[in-house]
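[job 0412] stage=complex_fold ligand=thymidine-5'-diphosphate status=START
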Amino acid sequence: MRLLVCGGAGFIGSTFVRRRLVDHGDDVTVLDKLTYAGRRENLDGVLDDIRFVHGAIEDQAAVAGAVSGCDAIVNFAAETHVDRSISGPEEFIMTNMQGTHVLLEAAREHGLRYLQVSTDEVYGSIDSGSFTEDSPLQPSSPYSATKTGADLLVFSYFHTYGLEALICRGSNNYGPRQYPEKLIPLMILNALAGDSLPVYGDGRNVRNWLYVDDFARGIGHTLAHGQPGEAYNCGGPEELENLEVVQRIIELTGADPALVEHVTDRPGHDRRYSLSSDKLKRLGWEPQVRFGEGLSQTVQWYRDNAWWWEPVRSGDYRDYYERHYGRALKV
Ligand code: NAD
Ligand code: TYD
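[job 0412] stage=complex_fold status=DONE, emitting structure tokens
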């Protein structure tokens, strides 16, 4: 297949690109703005096997140049961090909503299949049970609200213009190359550096953890076997409270448990996410990586790849960290 992968220099997009090259021999073009979260290093080893276009999805000319000759668009490109969406929602609206609109127009013009990568956060928080694809959309943060807006726009292009559009909604991902502002890589790197482990509120919020390769396969599965106009949930095999995740990272890194520090809670912090993935399982997808195995591989990857994260923990990220947590980061 000839695929345009938008946001392919990010954490999940780069994992997807690798899998498509190895498992399917696809012809891949990556379109990526290279924001703080997007790095060519994430495509190390495969850059010679793809076409890389540096550009934004909200830029019609960049999209027109990148899309020519492709059969399908898979859109990962997004602003993705809830805390950043709380301190500055503007870029989330531009990329997540306006950018999606530009891509949908390009897909319509060229008659392409279109897959939108989305999130369990569009459903909001659930105290018990799990969300299905028919659950109401009740996003709580500017991040999840803009992802929901994009999902609705995607459906509208199916209903109005007959675009072959699908959505795959993942639960919280973890694995190699995740930017260390998200819980798991932040805790791993702080634990390895002997820095404090900042747990928001009581630490009892629950997330449904999905290993990144399992999500990449779920997206590919949706692209190949999904029905246009449908959304498919892609949830991980385990749910854990944040404190349990941090405890396991402490065990795997040998860090001092006294590093755990309860800090001010995130405003509007969703209590629990949980997805039912029965619909995607009926198409033949299953998660393959249990949390214990995936987490220990992830810790090992960060131990072995200081070259990848050392530049991140200097520069802009240091400023972000100091502003957000009110203290300097050890490097
Ligand atoms: P990420 O932040 O690691 O990467 C985002 C990528 O998009 C980066 O390469 C960035 O440079 C690029 N990008 C940002 N704005 C752009 C723009 N305007 N034009 C072109 N490129 C742009 O994100 P991720 O964690 O890999 O998430 C990828 C997708 O998966 C997102 O759509 C996200 O909503 C969704 N998702 C993420 C998770 C998770 O736990 N990380 C879970 C479910 C769904
Ligand atoms: P995060 O990785 O930001 O993903 P999301 O908010 O999109 O689920 O956060 C996962 C959970 O970890 C969430 O409940 C917030 C919490 N958290 C902390 O307790 N401390 C931190 O420093 C971060 C970044 C997150």
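The first strand starts at residue 2 and ends at 6.
[job 0412] exit 0
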